[in-house]
Amino acid sequence: xxxxxxxxxxxxxxxxxxxxxxxxxxxxxxxxxxxxxxxxxxxxxxxxxxxxxxxxxxxxxxxxxxxxxxxxxxxxxxxxxxxxxxxxxxxxxxxxxxxxxxxxxxxxxxxxxxxxxxxxxxxxxxxxxxxxxxxxxxxxxxxxxxxxxxxxxxxxxxxxxxxxxxxxxxxxxxxxxxxxxxxxxxxxxxxxxx
Length: 194
Prior knowledge:
The protein is an alpha+beta fold. It is about 55% helix and about 25% strand. α1 packs across α4 (about 155-194).
């Protein structure tokens, strides 16, 4: 798909993704944003720059933008009435977001400038949805782990915690992939209409 067509389609997606991204990330989430530079005065030059300098996404290759997510559980247990139970659970989310940033002359083609601005906005919104998904699953992990029943030993409880956390992380990975799949289908459907 030509970059010009993709950029026009992304313009239409911005409003839809904006609605999806309205959920704010919780206090558990820290976001670090980095940029890569994109130079060029034509759709083809911008496309080539993104292909060269964009972040590498596992299973995809080079992408316009990317978010690396790490979830870090902080768990405290206590012994009460001879049993080990969860005293507190907090799952912190660390998100490293990489976005495109236009460098160099922007005085050329107004259509290219507008399209790239739309692309930047779409990339920000798309990655914000990924962060929101991670935040939601961190909260789900906290909920499930806090509800685990007490066990005779803390070793047994930690096995339960590991299983519950792993289950939620599997669901999280699936939700992230599903979001990207739905976005790709939407883009393809819009491209087919053009």
